Amino acid sequence: MSAALIDGKAFAEGLRAKVGVRAAAFEAQAGRKAGLAVVLVGEDPASEVYVRNKGKQTVAAGMESFEHKLPADTGEAELLALVERLNADRSVDGILVQLPLPAHLDEQKVIATISPDKDVDGFHVINAGRLAVGLPGFVPCTPLGCLMLLKDRLGDLSGKNAVVIGRSNIVGKPMAQLLLAESCTVTIAHSRTRDLPEVVRRADIVVAAVGRPEMVKGDWIKPGAVVIDVGINRVPGAEEGKTRLVGDVDFASASAVAGAITPVPGGVGPMTIAVLLRNTLVAAHRNEGLELPADAI
Ligand code: GUN
Fold first, then answer.
1. Looking at domain 141-269, which CATH architecture does it have?
2. Ligand 1 atom index nearest CA of 96
3. Measured between alpha carbons, how far is 119 from 122 in angstroms, rounded to an integer?
4. Same fold? 30-115, 141-269
5. Which of 7, 163, 220, 268 could join 197 in a cystine, given CB atoms 3.0 to 4.6 angstroms apart?
6. Which of the listed residues 96, 113, 118 should we mutate to test ligand 1's pocket, taking the one with most ligand atoms within 8 A of CB?
7. Could you report the per-residue pLDDT of 93-150, keeping only the tens digit for each?
8. Separation CA 2–CA 11 (nearest Å)
9. Mean pLDDT for all residues in the chain
10. Residue 232 in contact with ligand 1 by CB distance below 6 A
């Protein structure tokens, strides 16, 4: 392995510590803690783990966590009514509805009901539009975390060739917008892209967010490129009955060629919640009309 390891776990810890300091200052100024409401519908085990971790880390950062767990058969009207109540609740600065929702619920309708000023996930079309036109708003947590890691590693990104593999609303599209705003030359690749290895070979920055285990191979990577692996895939392990986590990048071969690479686990994963806490603190300041310097967190 020649690539430097990008330690997202350590970066996320540092970010959470900075959020903690600012959250305490917010509480002193506002006379209340910043608050994050998380809504979980149903019993998806992975979502339950995320929600538990979000709650723990929110409290550890000195903020209030409001958890709303609803049964899988919750009706749309009931869920929308809860979101409306949270929109109106002054102690709630950020609202996150855990996705995916059970199939009978319309995710777009639920997201559209969240107040854009409390949409700390950055999923509302208003915030997607703000990102697209360069206005301040909330940016989805995972791609913003990836951008932080890239800027920490590379400094100025302008003029770099960036390839984003994946075009989801949660990662691929906002990632491309963020890189474009940093003056990268951005290519969005996806399942219909022709000759993907050749497209990736041109990239100084590769962000893989496709959800296919170890798809991106080392011989696709330009020597010295920075590789950000958003994938979290569970595959059969070496031992019978055991599983292991792998990314969308074949770490063994890619780390022999790349200049720097995020591991899985311990790379992008821990950044998502840290950025969520950051977004919640930003929302809290905006909701109270308080100043938070742009470079504070
Ligand atoms: N499910 C997987 N990732 C996310 C996320 O960042 N936000 C929400 N709301 N749901 C998710």
1. 3-Layer(aba) Sandwich (3.40)
2. 9
3. 5
4. yes
5. 220
6. 96
7. 999 999 999 999 999 999 999 999 999 999 999 999 999 999 999 999 999 999 999 9
8. 21
9. 97
10. no
Task: Flag whether the pTM goes above 0.85.
Answer: yes
Question: What's the rounded mean pLDDT across residues 277-296?
Answer: 94
Could you tell me which of 206, 219, 168 has the C-alpha nearest to residue 190? 168
- Higher pLDDT: 261 or 295? It is 261
Residue identifier of the C-alpha nearest atom 3 of ligand 1:
99
Question: Would strands 94-97 and 35-41 be described as parallel, antiparallel, or unpaired?
Answer: parallel
Instruction: Identify the residue whose C-alpha is closest to ligand 1 atom 9.
Output: 98
- Tell me the pLDDT tens digit for each residue of 12-51: 999 999 999 999 999 999 999 999 999 999 999 999 999 9
136 C-alpha to center of ligand 1: Å?
21
Domain boundaries, the chain: 30-115, 141-269
Ligand 1 centroid–CA 121 distance in Å is 7
Q: What is the C-alpha to C-alpha distance for residues 25 and 63, in angstroms, rounded to an integer?
A: 11
**Domain 30-115: CATH superfamily, name plus number:** Leucine Dehydrogenase, chain A, domain 1 (3.40.50.10860)
CA distance 270 to 162: 23
